[in-house]
Amino acid sequence: MVTMERKTHYDSIMDRSKRIMWQDDCYMDLQSTPCSASSQAAAEDTIVREHKDVLLRRYEQYRDRDSVSCPKLNISSRTLLMVDGLSDLQQKEHDLMQVGVTRGGKRNHLRQLGLSKLFEPLTRVSLPPRFSLTVGVAGIGKTTWVRHFVRQWCQGALCTDVHLVLPFTFCELNSLEKISAEKLVKMSFPHLTDPSLILNSSCRTLLILDGLDEFRSTLNFSDAAPCNDSKKEVSIDDLITNIIRGNLLPDISVWVTSRPGVASLVPGGLVDRVTEIPGFSPKDIHIFLNHHFSEKDFASKIWAHLESHKILMVMCYIPCVCWIVADTLLYIMQSGTQESLPRTCTELYAHFCSMKAEAGEPRGREPVKIEQLHGNNRKLLGNLGRLAFYGLLKHKYTFSEQDLRAYGIDLLLTQSSFGAGILVREESAIHTTYHFTHLSLQEFLAATFYHVSSKRAIFDLFSESTMSWPKIGFQNHFRSAFQHSQQAEDGHLDVFVRFLTGLLCPLALRPLAGLLAKDDGSQKVWAAGFLQGLLVSGGAVVSLRAVNLAYCLQELQHTELLRTVEEDLRLGNLAGKLTRPHCVVLGYLLHVSPECSEQTNLTGSLNYTTVKCLLPQLLYCSHLRLENNHFKDDVMELLGSLLSAKDCHIKKISLAENSISNKGAKSLSRALLVNRTLTSLNLRNNNIGSKGAKFLAEALKMNQALISVNFQNNSIEEEGAQALAEVLQCNRKLVSLNIRKNTIGAGGAKRIADALKTNRTLTKLILCSNQLGDKGTVALAEALTLNHTLLFLQLQSNSISNRGMTALTKALRLNHGLLSLNLRENSIGVEGAKNMAHALQENQSLQDLDLTANLLHDEGVQAIASAIKYNQGLTSLHLQWNFIKSTATKALAQSLLSNTTMQLLDLQENAIGNEGVIFLAEALKTNTSLRTLCLQGVSAGTSGAIAMAEALMTNQTLQTLDLRGNTVGMEGAKALANSLKSNRSLKSLNLQENSLGMDGAIFIATALKGNHQLTYINLQGNGIGESGAKVISDAIRASAPVCVVDI
């Protein structure tokens, strides 16, 4: 059926493509006569211009409401996210739960689309979408986007190939029962005297249907009677169904907006394009606050408050709620009271209602009239709460005037400051409707109604009629509310029960003192016990309904359990403590805790049972660290199902230090075949073996998301390396591969090298400790002559000698891509160093070279020093443990006089002595490029320290100086202290184990009074003693508060 509809639509477009453009976007059929076509085009042009004028006048009234004070946040500068359908979370959960779970983050999306591109084909050969669906949570700005689009189109700013735009809202369609497509157009746009323009596809038309979630009728795509007669009257739901199906008006484009849950009712096969409206990012919220408030002090205070209360920050992801939060917090700060800023959503909305009520209080009025106004507001709040509650139960979010009267709401009072601040009136050509400022406000008012009514009600409040079983007492009604909430699969009562619980906290009720009856707060303790009892009960898996209980505890401000689990999470002390209540709270913390904002570290905390329990909540973490948990293959089955899920948000996962074998790797590989979010996989120190490597390699051939893989120490051997080499030949996404310590040998290295000859995406390759030898190194060198995209190559501890080094250095003369080469702990010797020196004279692209522990001796280093005089590419050179003495150090110092690119020089553990340090100090008086100098354990004494101190008085570019493990003594410390008084560049100074004594440490501490650049200093192991260490530490912190002191 869907295929036939697509074919009909395609044939229609092909027929339309046979026409030609004529006179300002009007079509003329090739068979028409020039005269009749010209007059027809002129008539159509007149109608279109009149239509644009009418729409512009109609939508201009909303401009102020829709605009944002900051140009950077206006719709014109924002984009929609084109997504691949709706996630399970979007289809099944409450809007605010969706926002909370994902921390307001953007979904993985195919591309970004501006409004001007929304109805255009994606490629030159593709067709434009007939049916486009745009989703977004309540308050995200769907209607604002539609209004903005209509205004822009009317002004000719976008979609100029669309001749007519017909915008409708489902709110106004609710007032209709039976109607034809032709009559609907005539009724809504009476100025369109000739509907045949639309009905006969004379020109390209866009039909906008805004707010599907507010449509009261049910769209039945399986049973709706087909209708292709635009003049035939059918029920409004059948009319909409047939338009979406393409039976009616098949040649027009249709754009529907909706909240995600209801949007899922439209069959996916009918939808050509799905886009999602993104909310504010933290950066956007910051920009909004700075532009919304003229006084920067207010903006910074509100931002600081949001930063420390993440629940409120996440709410601000929704632009509409961001307005509510910002204005309410500003109102409290400007009120002049000592009221603390709200810490929960319940407190916030209580202050919001108080603010709206106070806005209507006239200044200087008699107390009697003010009390009368309070009485009116109390009555209005009660009736609005009842409307809100029973509307919520019916999933009803827009109301007619008749609805308001039915609940005793005086329409005049809705125009008061209090009423108008809570209830928004919308007028259209067909109907007038009302809705609450935001869904969350409706839920809050519903909770206030239930809170007050449950104290005196004798029947179940969830039954609007009195025909129900008796239910007496607040606690029974409270239990009933949670029973209904826990049973609601779509979670539509989640936020309602949060507010209901929050209203038991005296702090939340205080702002509503003039609007609600007094409450003694006696139920708070009982409610806390009730909620904790619910935490204990429940199934083996922590669902979002269970997590909502923790949200309720937060609103109640009963946070002892929440704080305990968060502290254990921060300290890594969760092992053995994860009972079901702890797992539920942990699930909540995964959503809101700052400890989980960048990464979720559950190292050494979980086992099979707790992973199974937390599985639905781990789904929404972006960076999971599950290291050292003794995971076996059964856990990998669970994690495989996690990574395979459609809703998976995980981008990085570390499973290092577990007990995963090839069976576990097989489970992972199946998941990687379908996963599209994971970019980094760390399996360091497991035991997947060559068989496991093969499983994962097969998945990597297909996977187009992973860019970093770490298989370090997994015994994959040559066979596993061969499988990964095959991946490198076809995978075009993998950027980093770590197979350190896998005994792949020379054979494995040759396989990898052959793949590198054609691979153009891998930029980082780690092959340390793999017994490559000279044979494997020669193969890699050959690959480097052809590959210029690899940037980082690590070959540490591979028994590379002169032969391998000769091949590598020849390759470096031809290679212009490699930036970093790690050859630590090999045996390249003097000859190898000389070959490297020759290569450095020609290669100007290599930036980082590590030759630590390579038996270079003075002769080899002197050769490298000679090359550095001319090399202008190298920025970092590591030469520790190379038996270097003062002669080679002198050569290095001389090279620094002419070299202008070297930023790091590491000479640790070389016996260069005072003489060598003096040579380097002299060079520093002239050199302006070096930033880091590492001289740990170089046998430097007082004279060397004094020379370095003199250099520091002149040098203003060195930032890090490491003199650990020398003997600079008190006199050396005194000289260094004097230099610190004038030096303004040094940020880190390490004088650990240098025999400074108490006096030397005092010299350093005193010097910092005049030095404000130093951010780190290490004085450990200098015979200062505990009491002396405290004195010195306190003195340094007093002189330089930002300086970190290790003593």
Brief overview:
This protein has 1047 residues and is an alpha/beta fold. 47% of the residues lie in helices and 10% in strands. Among the domains are: 48-276, Rossmann fold (3-Layer(aba) Sandwich); 282-341; 367-521, no CATH class; 539-598 and 608-614, no CATH class.
Structure description:
This protein is α/β, with parallel strands linked by helices. 47% of the residues lie in helices and 10% in strands. The chain contains 43 helices and 30 strands. The strands form 5 sheets. The protein has a 17-stranded parallel sheet, with helices on one face. A 7-stranded mixed sheet has the order 4-3-11-5-10-8-6. Helix 38 runs parallel beside helix 39 (913-924).
**Rg from alpha-carbon coordinates:** 36 Å
In one word, what is the shape? Answer: globular
Helix content: 40-55%
Distance between the termini: 78 Å
DSSP strand tally = 30
Tell me the structural class: alpha/beta
Per the CATH scheme, the topology name of the domain at 48-276 is Rossmann fold
The CATH architecture assignment of the domain at 48-276 turns out to be: 3-Layer(aba) Sandwich
Key descriptive features of the protein:
1047 residues; alpha/beta; Rossmann fold; 17-stranded parallel β-sheet; 7-stranded mixed β-sheet; cytoplasm; leucine-rich repeat; NLRP_HD2; NLR family CARD domain-containing protein 3 isoform X2; ATP-binding
Q: What are the SSEs and their pairings?
A:
Blueprint: H1 2-17, E1 20-22, E2 26-28, H2 34-60, H3 63-66, E3 80-83, H4 88-92, H5 95-101, E4 111-113, E5 131-135, H6 142-154, E6 164-169, H7 170-173, E7 178-179, H8 181-188, H9 196-199, E8 205-210, E9 234-235, H10 236-245, E10 253-258, H11 260-263, E11 273-276, H12 282-292, H13 296-308, H14 310-315, H15 319-334, H16 345-359, H17 367-393, H18 401-406, H19 417-422, E12 423-427, E13 432-436, H20 439-453, H21 474-487, H22 494-502, H23 506-509, H24 524-536, H25 544-556, H26 560-571, H27 580-592, E14 600-601, H28 608-618, E15 623-625, H29 633-644, E16 652-654, H30 662-672, E17 680-682, H31 689-702, E18 708-710, H32 717-730, E19 736-738, H33 745-756, E20 764-766, H34 773-784, E21 792-794, H35 802-814, E22 820-822, H36 829-842, E23 848-850, H37 857-868, E24 876-878, H38 886-898, E25 904-906, H39 913-924, E26 932-934, H40 942-954, E27 960-962, H41 969-982, E28 988-990, H42 997-1007, E29 1016-1018, H43 1026-1039, E30 1044-1046
Parallel strand pairs: 5-10, 5-11, 6-8, 8-10, 14-15, 15-16, 16-17, 17-18, 18-19, 19-20, 20-21, 21-22, 22-23, 23-24, 24-25, 25-26, 26-27, 27-28, 28-29, 29-30
Antiparallel strand pairs: 1-2, 3-4, 3-11, 7-9, 12-13
